[in-house]
Design brief:
The structure is a single chain. This protein has about 260 residues and is of the alpha/beta class. The protein has one domain: Carbon-nitrogen hydrolase (Nitrilase/N-carbamoyl-D-aminoacid amidohydrolase), CATH 3.60.110.10. The protein is about 25% helix and about 30% strand. The chain contains 6 helices and 13 strands. The strands form 2 sheets. A 7-stranded mixed beta sheet has the order 5-4-3-2-1-12-13. It has a 6-stranded mixed beta sheet with strand order 6-7-8-9-10-11, with helices on one face. Helix 5 (about 160-165) runs parallel beside helix 6. It is globular, with a radius of gyration of 17 Å. This is Carbon-nitrogen hydrolase family protein. Keywords: Hydrolase. It comes from Reyranella aquatilis. Pfam families: CN_hydrolase.
Length: about 260
């Protein structure tokens, strides 16, 4: 990386956490720990995994009534956290409207405002995700200091059409939160393909730990030009940091730190 590019880089933090199903307070504590650790490394964008607030298999343990009941408090907490760390926070959480529940990424700006959301489109209608309603549109959000970001949740990357429709809105970077374990239905080239067809880097914030599945070998990755450029998988929760040069649309200098378990 040249000196000019290095001077204009922004650090992006992927919180490779181990959310516990149904343990909302513990998961919030883990997110806050990771976000503050990321801020100490000058991260400008902090991303959490899919359903980081609730864990993946929460429904059978605590139901879904808490989602709407606690949403105002949750969003107030997340906004305050984003403001405290001075960074954009992408929160993976169940989301409630007056008539539906969604598997969402909620975006909070550095001043604490809720500035956008992406609702998982390729949501499973059986098993651990059967509580959620599929989203109905691609999402691109302008993120302070980062650029125009296309948002995906996990299996949304299965769909070349969704990738194309997102890219058509004009993007600098593709970003996915995930709870995507390797195995029979695990990732199989979707991230690499998206980086190749769009000509833009793909960052994936995956998770670890045991939930409805064993996620210990699940990878958080950066895909560039059709190949995996960086990857991290480890049973211990971690903080993956990567430098992003917005003007050059280039990722570099991947490094990982451990994060204490909640």
């Amino acid at each position: 990386m040249t000196d000019a590019i290095a001077a204009s880089t922004r650090t992006i933090a992927l919180l490779h956490l181990a959310p516990r199903p149904g343990e909302i307070a513990a998961n919030r504590h883990s997110i806050e720990q990771g976000a503050r650790q990321a801020a100490a490394r000058d991260a400008r964008l902090v991303v959490t995994p899919e359903l980081a607030v609730s864990g993946y298999g929460f429904r059978d343990l605590i139901g879904t009534g808490w989602i709407a009941e606690g949403q105002a408090d949750l969003f107030a907490w997340a906004g305050a956290l984003a403001r405290d760390i001075g960074a954009t926070l992408v929160l993976g959480t169940p989301e409630a409207t007056s008539d539906a529940l969604f598997n969402s990424m909620i975006v909070f700006a550095p001043d604490g405002r809720l500035t956008g959301r992406h609702r998982k489109i390729n949501a499973l209608r059986v098993g651990s995700e059967s509580w959620s309603t599929p989203g109905d549109r691609p999402t691109v959000i302008a993120v302070d200091g980062i650029g125009r970001v296309g948002f995906f949740v996990c299996a949304d990357m299965y769909s070349p059409r969704l990738v194309d429709e997102t890219a058509a809105q004009g993007i600098d970077l593709l970003l996915s939160s995930a709870a995507w374990a390797p195995g029979l239905h695990g990732p199989s080239g979707e991230w690499e393909r998206a980086s190749s067809t769009t000509g833009r880097p793909v960052l994936v914030c995956n998770r670890t730990g045991c939930d409805a599945l064993d996620f210990d070998a699940a990878c958080s990755v950066a895909a560039v030009s059709g190949a995996i450029a960086f990857s991290h998988a480890f049973p211990q929760p971690g903080l993956a940091l990567v430098d992003w040069a917005p003007d050059a649309r280039r990722l570099a200098n991947w490094r990982v730190e451990t994060v204490p378990r909640a």
